[in-house]
């Protein structure tokens, strides 16, 4: 981070995951609303851990960029082996990526343990532990952005302050998902907050590191080896820039709400509730028919299963 690419690249990753989860949660809920239970991640038929593998790949790439590729000497340490002050933010950003890597690796490990103990999902305890690992990752993201070593008192600080609010929503809904796995509203808000995180990362990178897009009275200043947006405070330029950031966030939030509502409305016409074998809406806990359960068109118990045949990408339940 600290550059345009450093914000846009992780932002695009958050956008992709957010849209994927929005689509998957809405579809799962529309197909089986009575037995809906939210998963933390969605397997893909033919590449079960594709989502988690992409998270790991993105996290590893981010860590390498922060600690190996980005620094001028291609390593983040000083000549005496200590961490210089201008590289502290590299370690902070890399630590956020490490937390996401730990979550994704833990989810794969727990899924493997579930498969070893049961012939087929669901694996409720593993789902809960994976969700707690995700919550720990978002908690670290919130802490490190809140206690960032970089100077965030100016317009960049306003972007990060609003980002912390979005991360806090993601963290809260992830924790709530452990206690209320059947709540579609919790899953919907969590997915939307992941999408908004990505959008805000991209906006931050483009607006702060494109000189032509900086507010009036603000310029890019090269400090401690990287560019920082600085605004004059004597003529009100800083206050005006912060107000513009607030407006921008408000517009992106409204656009996210419109997108979620439009997607839900469109998918309501595409996916109808599947016939239920249990008239009382009780969850089918005895579904233990082996690996073929990942290939049937159903959305039972514990989390998401493979859904209907009309999807461009078939997904199964973790």
Give a written overview of the molecule.
The chain is mainly alpha-helical and 318 residues long. It has one domain. The protein has helices at 4-31, 50-69, 88-117, 124-146, 155-179, 184-208, 237-270, and strands at residues 218-223, 226-231. Strands 1-2 form a two-stranded antiparallel ribbon. The longest helix has 34 residues, at 237-270. The protein is globular. The chain starts with a helix and ends in a 48-residue tail after the last helix. Mean pLDDT is 83; it is low at 278-314.
Mean pLDDT: 83
Tell me the fraction of residues in β-strands, as a range: under 5%
Total domain units: 1
Neighbour order of strands in the largest sheet: 1-2
The main pleated sheet reads as:
2 strands, antiparallel
Q: What is the chain-wise order of helices and strands?
A: HHHHHHEEH
Keywords: Membrane, Transmembrane, Transmembrane helix
Main location: membrane
Region (Disordered): 274-318
Biased composition (Acidic residues): 281-296
Compile the SSE list and pairings.
Elements: H1 4-31, H2 50-69, H3 88-117, H4 124-146, H5 155-179, H6 184-208, E1 218-223, E2 226-231, H7 237-270
Antiparallel strand pairs: 1-2
Helix pairs in contact: 1-2, 1-6, 1-7, 2-3, 3-4, 4-5, 5-6, 5-7, 6-7
What are the main properties of this structure?
transmembrane, 7 helices, transmembrane helix, 318 residues, globular, membrane, DUF716, mainly alpha
In a nutshell, what does this entry contain?
With 318 residues, the chain is mainly α.
